[in-house]
Design brief:
GO terms for molecular function: DNA-binding transcription factor activity; transcription cis-regulatory region binding. It is a single chain. The protein is α/β, with parallel strands linked by helices. It has 3 domains: 45 residues, no CATH class; 134 residues, 3-Layer(aba) Sandwich (Rossmann fold); 130 residues, Response regulator (Rossmann fold, 3-Layer(aba) Sandwich), CATH 3.40.50.2300. It has 12 helices and 12 strands. It is elongated and about 90 Å long.
Length: 341
Amino acid sequence: MRATIKDIAAETGFSVTTISLVLNGKGYKISDETKNQILAKARELNYRPNQLAVSLVKRQSKTIGFIVPDISNVYFANMARAIDEACRENGWSVILCNTNDNYDRDREYIDLLADKGADGIVFIMAKDNTREMAAEEIDYLESIHIPYVVVDRIPELRNCPAVGTDHEIGGYLAARHLLSLGHRRIACVVGPHATQMDSEARYHGYCRAMEEAGIPVDERLVCAGEYTQEGGAAAVEKLISQDFTAIFACNDASAYGVCRKLKEYRKKVPEDVSVVGYDDVFYARMLEVPLTTIRQQVREMGREAVRLLLKQIREHKRPESKVIFAPELVVRESTARIQPS
């Protein structure tokens, strides 16, 4: 059984009030000798404050929830680490809620965190959300009056506190890089862009770069990759009968699947096909052919999300603005100038 303030009082002979003041750092008029005795006994008894009781008094649990779609995805794992670091630096804790990219679990975890007394939520929506579903989730968060920040998958239909990347610029940089190397038949392995805002924006950036170069987008060269290795490999199966010299995959996991499947077809990267990914996760530089990719500022985004959330909690005021980070092209060995046939 955990030690209580009453146990320390029984052991030291000091009053519960005196001990409470010392342990809460408010014993300004209490002698150093008394303070030292109380603190020594607290350490001896392994005393830890009851955080539930503290939160009831202060009306603050110093805990936030992080709702993440898929913690096995390296991108989201890196985000979780950044959020945890920022919380620890500020004396806060994180409850991690993994939804497996399921919309229904989004709502379940919002309710659970509210019921558990979390002070706020950092929220990355499940990929099966439609725009209407995303708007409903924002309306629900507003209705229960819990501070929140949406990260990465930002709904277009609601003005809400959010942190993200300019994904259209990211897709544009990827396609423009391939165009600068002389490629004209550039395939695009998209995510679930029919419903997901970030994937659609990357695709729009790709289209804009192609249009600027005077090259119509060939829909036969556009395949869904679902942001997974398996999806990337399946996309190559569909594309292999088409004429292409380069592939832009809308995340690094699908780019890895693309490279793996191209090898099975005896297509060399980049000699036969140049490949660009998106995210710059840690293994991108460790692949057999290091991957050219679009780097997101994941650590900075996570830390900014925590800053915005804690500001809301402390000031009891919701910021209206979004913080959007610029992506960066990282050139490695998976792309090369097109070889004359």
